[in-house]
């Protein structure tokens, strides 16, 4: 029977990620195992301000490691093991917790600081959490970051074979650091404050991830920053007359993020510049746009005194909104006015002398010798707006869920509703949201000095739509596309504006430290620009170093379907490692699209080797005689052992293998630990377990996500085949001449796939699981590598409070659980028309070797940031990637159940018909068995046509079988090599 869905219009999610409000009397808060109820820091801060909560003056307590409570004594390191700290330190790692006890005479607000020495080579940040007297005071205290400082391995830029400068390797600085506990998203301008009671307080520091040596812990009264007037009174001195000190911004002495990197600006106004070379002549842009990222430069001056600071910058943020930087001298913000200094958008380079609103230049006191200038990206000025927008988006999501429960998600425009009878507050809600957003729109206009940016316009449009909906609330069920769904809805407008506001990109070319001297012009004059423009035009007809073009006969030509930064790194690696060792010259070129590869093959101008191509492409080229069988190489079976056997299935014809997996996807279960704990729900292990937790999830307006919901009208194999394979069903007959989707096992898989939607009411369509997961409406579901990257790199507010587990499966009669899922990524192949097949194979082996893949993955992430994760298909390399160990173990175990769908000439029809079956059953109410039988007729008819086209049938009779490849077949090749 189809389960009746109960609606709970008053059971809503709170505004803070991870929070749940229990409005149902049957589920009171004290009845759940653990409830996450912390409000945001901004909310708590407002409460403190309202009651005038203060702090003791000039208070400081230093707690050395020897005074830590409840610690593992074995982790207390001697002074000789302290990395020159000078006293005993504590080795803090592996989910360890330590307590300190602090006695204060005055109840109030205090800051926490830490001495620490990061350990380990990886770039995964060290994370901890802080509790005060056994409780998290606010949600942000659940994650505190202890960053590393990085520097370039060499001071000068080396050049590649084309004369272009190469970004140097980044190495962590082996030194002790000091940090005050800060909001992990760096949306607060100042360190976090903690409320301590009069008398003794217990502070608990718990490890979430990473390892470090922990020195003293400091409990201080809240620090203050002087105003500019106060600052000038603190130091006696006069304006310097010693000339201009020029610092090239692309050479910082240190940075707290390895991926703040030098960039090439092919602009003659930038220093240095060469028309025929790509010089790394600036810093920043998208690599320096995340709040909290800082870079420091060493500045040496000849005398004590006051100096002006001018930054040659380019602020070309596409949305038109200003960006902000915190300015620090020798580690301290000198005065309030430069705590979040704004840079307005300009279309050209400017000399931005740090000044007040009236254009009067600030003076900074520097001492003779070396000083440090630090600039930190700072999104704190827009934090209040982000908070309000987030609250409105959560409210819209809750309201939308309530309306859908009332209407059964019926959006028929011809049907009338009286929503106000069930939700009498709806008009006030919508108007209240509009008022809040209007206030924030005006605030953003002030920040942008009256300029209407994309963010401001988005808020204004959202206000207009909310007011229009509030005027006719009973029409909202048929107008949900304006409120919460679709690309132009209020929710989407606010979501896009949120992402834009957080970004703080800024390019810097030079730093000038000076007195009243005149500075060089930041831009070339009109005539110089015109001349350079003409010269660049003629130069553009010369060779593009990474373009696909004919190469010399002694060079292996490799086309790569990836962005420039990937290909540049690959070329540098092959030049520095592979060619010197083998003598084989290799040229990597950017392939704009896979279509170009197909056209090049048709014109007989194909390369020797192709990388980064879809896993299905080697098959399509092979069946047309254009790909080379890699099993012809004697050591192929040896190479085969580094990969998942199931990844080869779409690249096999008979006993021939036409591709090598390069990257590999994974489908695992993502879940919010905080929400499942709050609801006292277990992490499901099988689909039966998923069905068991669905009623409790749905009572609170939550649900479970499957890849079916992520697809649109067409449901690909990656969404449908796991249900079939987990039931031990199959898609083809063994001889390849027909489909078996009408077998009992396969039909059971299809039935479960459709029942999840028709009976158990899982979502039919979810445009973006990542957003719903962040905002708690879908706190659990099956998703892939892309979601993992997004959550790791772009969801700091829930870091540490989500996890992954194995894909739900089907328990078999022997007690084992089949978790089969797809994992197709990208692949590499050698062309049959190449005359350098042996050399191409050596390149392919080197590229996919364990050492090369580890080197490439680590360098890529250190250089370009956490979002540049490399999901190598080499299992041995994957084990050593800079990912959290617990997550790598889950992925590797799931890959034991990796099973790609084998390719046949008619595979596309099987995939399409299974998708059609789902649509017929879910939307049209057809019987599953009947829909399958109809699909079999269609598939077999197309099978005969395609098999005749490729010579496997003649006049309807089989003349040559098409054996379907199996995992066992691939495993046998590996066993042959081991023998």
From TrEMBL:
Pfam families with a match to the protein in the record: SBP_bac_1
Cytoplasm is among the record's keywords: no
Keywords: Signal
SUPFAM superfamilies linked to this entry: Periplasmic binding protein-like II
tRNA-binding recorded as keyword: no
Gene3D superfamilies: Galactose-binding domain-like, Periplasmic binding protein-like II
Signal peptide from the UniProt entry: 1-23
Cross-referenced InterPro entries: Bact_solute-bd_prot1, SBP
The name this protein goes by in its record: Extracellular solute-binding protein
């Amino acid at each position: 029977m189809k389960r009746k869905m109960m609606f709970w219009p008053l059971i809503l999610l709170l505004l803070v990620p991870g929070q749940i409000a229990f409005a149902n009397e049957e589920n009171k808060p004290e009845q759940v195992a653990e409830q996450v109820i912390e409000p945001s820091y901004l909310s708590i801060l407002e409460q403190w301000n309202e009651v005038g909560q203060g702090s003791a003056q000039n208070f400081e307590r230093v707690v050395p490691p020897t005074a830590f409570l409840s610690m593992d004594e074995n982790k207390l390191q001697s002074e000789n093991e302290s990395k020159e700290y000078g006293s005993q330190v504590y080795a803090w790692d592996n989910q360890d917790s330590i307590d300190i006890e602090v006695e204060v005479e005055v109840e109030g607000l205090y800051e926490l600081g830490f001495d620490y020495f990061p350990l380990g080579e990886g770039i995964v940040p060290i994370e901890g959490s802080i509790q005060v007297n056994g409780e998290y005071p606010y949600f942000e205290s659940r994650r505190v970051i202890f960053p590393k400082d990085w520097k370039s391995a060499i001071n000068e830029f080396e050049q590649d074979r084309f004369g272009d400068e190469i970004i140097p390797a980044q190495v962590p600085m082996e030194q002790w650091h000091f940090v005050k506990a800060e909001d992990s998203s760096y949306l607060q301008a100042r360190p976090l404050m903690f409320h301590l009671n009069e008398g003794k307080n217990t502070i608990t520091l718990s490890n979430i991830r990473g390892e470090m040596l922990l020195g003293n812990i400091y409990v201080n009264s809240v620090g203050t920053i002087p105003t500019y007037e106060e600052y000038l009174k603190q130091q006696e001195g006069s304006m310097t007359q010693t000339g201009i000190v020029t610092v090239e911004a692309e050479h910082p002495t240190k940075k707290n993020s390895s991926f703040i990197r030098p960039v090439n600006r092919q602009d003659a106004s930038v220093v240095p510049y060469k028309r025929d070379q790509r010089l790394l002549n600036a810093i920043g842009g998208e690599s320096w746009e995340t709040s909290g990222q800082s870079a420091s430069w060493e500045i040496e001056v000849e005398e004590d005194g006051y100096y002006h600071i001018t930054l040659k910058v380019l602020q070309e943020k596409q949305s038109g909104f200003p960006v902000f930087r915190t300015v620090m001298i020798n580690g301290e913000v000198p005065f309030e006015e430069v705590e979040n200094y704004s840079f307005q958008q300009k279309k050209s380079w400017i000399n931005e002398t740090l000044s007040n609103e009236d254009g009067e230049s600030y003076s900074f006191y520097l001492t003779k010798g070396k000083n440090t200038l630090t600039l930190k990206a700072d999104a704190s000025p827009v934090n209040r707006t982000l908070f309000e927008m987030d609250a409105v988006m959560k409210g819209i999501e809750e309201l939308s869920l309530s309306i859908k429960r009332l209407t059964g998600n019926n959006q028929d425009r011809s049907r009338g509703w009286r929503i106000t009878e069930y939700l009498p507050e709806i008009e006030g809600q919508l108007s209240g949201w509009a008022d809040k957003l209007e206030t924030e729109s005006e605030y953003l206009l002030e920040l942008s000095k009256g300029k209407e940016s994309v963010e401001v316009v988005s808020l204004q449009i959202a206000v207009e739509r909310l007011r229009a909906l509030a005027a006719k609330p009973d029409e909202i069920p048929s107008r949900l596309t304006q409120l919460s769904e679709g690309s132009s809805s209020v929710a989407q407008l606010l979501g896009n504006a949120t992402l834009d506001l957080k970004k703080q990109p800024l390019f810097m070319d030079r730093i000038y430290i000076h007195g009243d001297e005149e500075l060089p012009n930041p831009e070339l004059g009109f005539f110089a620009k015109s001349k350079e423009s003409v010269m660049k035009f003629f130069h553009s007809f010369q060779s593009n170093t990474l373009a696909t073009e004919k190469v010399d006969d002694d060079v292996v030509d490799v086309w790569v379907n990836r962005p420039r930064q990937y290909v540049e790194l690959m070329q540098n690696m092959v030049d520095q490692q592979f060619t010197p060792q083998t003598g084989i010259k290799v040229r990597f070129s950017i392939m704009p699209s896979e279509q170009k590869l197909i056209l090049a093959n048709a014109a007989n101008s194909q390369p020797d080797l192709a990388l980064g191509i879809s896993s299905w492409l080697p098959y399509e080229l092979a069946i047309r005689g254009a790909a080379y069988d890699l099993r012809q190489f004697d050591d192929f079976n040896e190479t085969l052992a580094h990969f998942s056997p199931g990844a080869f299935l779409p690249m096999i014809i008979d006993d021939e293998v036409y591709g090598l997996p390069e990257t590999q996807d994974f489908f695992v279960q993502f879940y919010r630990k905080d929400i499942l704990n709050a609801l006292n729900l277990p992490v499901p292990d099988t689909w039966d377990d998923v069905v068991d937790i669905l009623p409790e999830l749905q009572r609170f307006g939550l649900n479970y996500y499957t890849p079916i919901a992520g697809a649109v009208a067409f449901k690909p194999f990656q969404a449908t085949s796991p249900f079939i394979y987990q039931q031990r069903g199959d898609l083809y007959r063994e001889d390849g001449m027909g489909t078996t989707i009408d077998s009992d096992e396969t039909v059971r898989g299809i039935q479960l796939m459709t029942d999840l939607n028709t009976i158990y009411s899982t979502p039919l369509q979810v445009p973006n699981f990542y957003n719903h997961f962040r905002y708690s409406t879908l706190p659990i579901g099956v998703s892939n590598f892309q979601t993992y990257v997004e959550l790791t790199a772009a969801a700091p507010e829930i870091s540490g409070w989500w996890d992954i587990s194995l894909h739900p499966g089907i328990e078999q009669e022997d007690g084992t659980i089949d978790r089969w899922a797809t994992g197709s990524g990208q692949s590499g192949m050698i062309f049959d028309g190449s005359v350098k097949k042996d050399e191409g194979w050596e390149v392919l082996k080197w590229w996919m070797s364990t050492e090369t893949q580890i080197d490439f993955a680590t360098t890529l992430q250190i250089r370009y940031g956490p979002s540049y994760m490399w999901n190598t298909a080499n299992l041995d390399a994957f084990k050593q990637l800079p990912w959290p160990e617990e997550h790598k173990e889950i992925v590797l175990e799931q890959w034991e159940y990796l099973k790609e769908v084998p390719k046949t000439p008619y595979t596309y029809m099987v995939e399409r018909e299974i998708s059609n079956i789902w649509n017929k059953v879910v939307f049209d109410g057809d019987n599953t068995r009947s829909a399958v039988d109809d699909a079999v007729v269609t598939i077999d008819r197309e099978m005969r046509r395609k098999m005749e086209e490729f010579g496997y049938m003649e006049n309807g009779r089989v003349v040559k079988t098409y054996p379907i490849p199996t995992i066992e077949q691939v495993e046998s090749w590996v066993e042959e090599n081991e023998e």
